[in-house]
Structure formats: structure tokens, C-alpha cells
Amino acid sequence: MKISLTFFLSLHCIFCIHAQNLVPNPSIEFLTPYRCPYLIDNWYSPNSETTDFLSACSGQTPVNYFGIQNPFDGIGYCGIRTYSGPEEWSVYPQYREYLAVKLIQPLERDSKYKVSFKYSVAENAGYTCDRLGIVLSEDPIQGSGVLNYMPQIENPTGIFLTDSVNWNTISGDYIANGGEQFIAIGNFYPDNQTHAMYYKANPGIYAKYYTYVYIDYVEIVKDPDYIPYLLIPNLVTANGDQMNDSFKISTNRNFTAFEVSIYNCWGAKVFESTSQTFEWTGDTMGVYYYQITTNKSNTYKGWVHVIKQ
Ligand SMILES: [Ca+2]
Ligand SMILES: [Ca+2]
User: Fold this and answer.
1) Which pLDDT does position 11 carry in this prediction?
2) How far is the CA of 104 from the centre of ligand 2 (A)?
3) pTM
4) Which position among 114, 128, 217, 274 has the lowest Cβ density within 10 Å, counted as fewest Cβ atoms?
């Protein structure tokens, strides 16, 4: 009995320390061996192009057509084309490959998540480009050619991806709108918004005129310490001392919709805005009534005193 209790406590502690990664098959492995190398578990190509799922199970890691790279984790990873040079445009105009997956559970509204994935540039690719990011979406991510989505986490513009030796990380914090349950990784920009250059003296045969990157270990983990807040002041002292000089909200949330209206004591509207970064310095001294609606559903009402002296 005593042993069982100790075991239970240990197990409980393990789950406490490690927040759950919401990405299924995060290491991009063939979890069902007989499917290798044709059907990867969970992951798919959202634009139906030939995304490569490379694994030692089919002899495609660490050496493959595109370069040499040991997996960051496990025995496999993914390989995608993120840009094709002008030499390929007659055959492959605006050609892109992506990898996508449905999360284990949807993201929760106003929660903060750490989003990251590993990448390494394939050494046989003749071109390098700067675009690589991850999209989080409520609806399934799909389309053809360049997928029309704005990545929430991405490599900085103008920084070319060139490291073909190490695994590097693209990561960022993401405050969820709630309901996001699909992700995709790749270059979501057309050629005229992608910075690219031919940089290899001796590229390989297969990837000579395009950019090719390996992707491994994708992680989306909730930050348990993040607490969303919204502070609304009830006093404005518009005297230029930099303290309470205007009526504005303080928040760490990003509202998808926002409205604020301010009324004087006779009920006349004196200010309105749809920007959550609004600032109202007050008309004349007095007491005003405000109404703030966030995400079209939550309404906050109250009084604000304006003092001018
Ligand atoms: Ca892997
Ligand atoms: Ca390499």
C-alpha cells in the first residue's frame, strides 16, 4: 500500500512539472512502422504538394537528396521547399511546400503559449530565403500554391536562413484568441515578398535552384504563469504631470474587437473609439460614464472623474 502511494505521488509530480505539448507527433516520426515512408502519422501537406517526410526507417536520414542532417529528435524530420528561383518558374511558379497538423486540443482564449520549431537548412539547396514561419488557425489550413495566411510566429524579414550544420529555433509567445487548433509551417509569402538569393558555389543536383529546409520538433506549450489583466482607471488628472493624464486601458490582451464610448452627465456621447490603444484626455472637469465592449461579448461600464488643475 505504501509503495503504491509513493508511485502515485511520483507520477503526479511528473505531470505537474511538464506542461503538455499540444502538437501530436511533435518529432515528425513514422509512429506506425509499416506505413514508412508513405503515410506519416498526424501530419499532412495543406496545399497537396509533395512535402517530404524523411526518416531512417526508409534510409532517408541522416543522408538524403537534399543534404546531410541528423534528426534533432528521434530518427526523422520533415523537408520542405520554401522558395524556387527564376530558373524553376516556368515549371514551378510560386511553388511552396508546407507541413500541417491538427492540435491535440484547441488553444484557450487569452492564454499564453510558447510556440517553437527547429529548422536546419539543407546544404544542397542553391538558394536561401528569409521567410519561414508558423500559422495558428481556428479552421483547417488549406489552399494551393502560396497559402494565404499571416504567420503569427516567423523568422525576421531580411535575415537569410543559411545554417546547414545546426538545428536552430524559431519561437515566440502567442496569446490565443481561443479555438485555434490547426497549425502549418512554411513560407506564406509570394515571391515578391520573399527575399531570396543564390548563394551556393556547389549546390546539389536536386535542390540546385530552390530553398529547402528541414523541420523537426514542433512545440506549443501553455504558459501556466500567465494571467490576463484589463485595468480601467476611474480618475483622470489632466495636468501634464505624466500621471493619470488620460483615460486609457492597460492590458496584456489583444482583443479581436474593441469598442469604447464615453458620455457626459447629460448622456451625450463625447468620445468613441474602436482601438484598444485609445487615449482620451477629457473635455472639461466632471464625471463621465464609459462603456467598453471587448470581443463583442464582454462589457465593462463605470464612471471616470476628470480633474483639470
Ligand atoms: Ca524527429
Ligand atoms: Ca546539414
Assistant:
1) 47
2) 30
3) 0.81
4) 274
Identify the pLDDT of residue 109: 87
Domain holding 166: CATH number?
2.60.120.260
C-alpha to C-alpha distance for 28 and 25, rounded to whole angstroms: 6
Q: Is residue 7 part of a domain?
A: no
Amino acid at 197: M
Ligand 1 centroid to residue 176 C-alpha, Å: 26
Ligand 2 midpoint to CA 233 (Å): 55
Same-domain status, 121 and 217:
yes
Domain containing 67 equals: 19-222
| Distance between Cα 295 and ligand 2 center (Å) | 45
The residue-averaged pLDDT of 203-232 equals: 94
Distance 4 CA to ligand 1 centre (A): 35
Q: How far apart are CA 158 and CA 141, in angstroms?
A: 26
Specify the pLDDT at position 256: 84
